[in-house]
Amino acid sequence: MEYLYLLFTITLSFTTNAQHILGQWETFDDKTKEKKQLLRFIKLETFILLK
User: Hey, is 30 helix, strand or coil?
Assistant: First the structure.
C-alpha cells in the first residue's frame, strides 16, 4: 500500500508541476522514521526506469 501511495505522489507531482523525477529518492518507515530503501530513477532512451 505504501508503494502505491509513493507512486501516486510522484505521478501527481510530475504531472502538476512538470518536475523531473530522475535521481535518487530515499523512503522512510512511517513508524520508526528509519531509512527503508533508496530508489533510483534513471532515463534510458525514452523510458524512465526504477532500480
Answer: coil
